[in-house]
Predict the structure.
Amino acid sequence: MNSLTVPFKDALKFWAKLGFISFGGPAGQIAIMHQEVVERRSWINENQFLRALNFCMLLPGPEAQQLATYIGWRMHGTLGGIAAGALFVIPSIFVMLLLSYLAVAHIDIPAVAAAFYGIQPVVVAVVAEAVLRIGKKALRHGFLYGFAAAAFAAIFFFKIPFPYIVAGAALGGLIMQRISPEVFCKGDFDEKTRECLTETESKADQQAQKPSWTHFFLILLIFSGLWIAVVGSVWIWAGYNSTLSQIAMFFSKAAFVTFGGAYAVLSYITDVAVSNGWLTAKQMLIGLGLAESTPGPLIMVTQFVGFLGAWHLPDGLTPLTAGILGALITTYVTFLPSFFFIFAGAPFIESMAGNRRLQASLTGVTAAVVGVVLNLAVWFGYKVILPNGGSMDYFALASAIISL
């Protein structure tokens, strides 16, 4: 680790600052971290950053927040990871609470309604742009376009659940790595050795963290206790069938299937939230727009869903009290697994630097996510531009085109 060379207070100041300036979604947030911790401050090197990023891309959950947690952990251990991951999120919690309240309590005010209506077509453009941005980075070979196309067809035409798409893409990456390893090279490929020509890590760097199964199960026990303490308390206090309990259970499950970031899982969350009466499809668009335009992870849209779900179905509480509790519970169960994945998995990833099979699985999943996000763009576009299933909203169409 770099804890001996990077003062903890300096890192703490940076993570606190990042929580307030992390606009632009995961791409912008990752770019800021790369510029600051690799290029400007040299806290970690390029290979370490990319290895951390690739690992976080494979994990369910918000990759930018997990990347911050990983870097904080690598520099200052568990305390550094907690500080980095928490400070990345805390400012956005309060911002989203306020905006969620305005979106549901004051939507009848013309100025508020107009502002939220204007957000919707912009979100369509943002998601469409995300397809192009992610695709440009992820689809480096013709075979990878096939991964993206297959993922789009699977979710759009056949309604195959997202976790199965991720598993299939990871397996496909492993198979393709054996058949055509050059597909997964970021640099040149040596035909004689059938190996990618990439920079290798130093022996000391590869041994920076030795994995331990004892450590893994200890982390698992601690985080299981943290989850049971909060969710169990909600069950006992509100009842298992209460809205708050259902929100806690659903977003606990969702936290383990949000592969590829918020975009990839939004259709799954929206389907469940709308069918449960937590919010409407239009309100989901508003929530995504708010998450896009405020600092913090894009997955904070789940806090918006939790707030509105509990607001609409308060179970005897005041709507505001229920909404705040729903939002905070959602945020807790959404981000708790992210910390677990990093603290439990990062030592193993550090010990597997350069593993071609792992890299191939990561690449296959990332390529498939492009197709899943394209499905989301089509779905949102239909809801906004053709809101009544056939009557076109020309203002929304024009706004989306201009925003591209």
Observations:
- The chain has 16 helices and two strands.
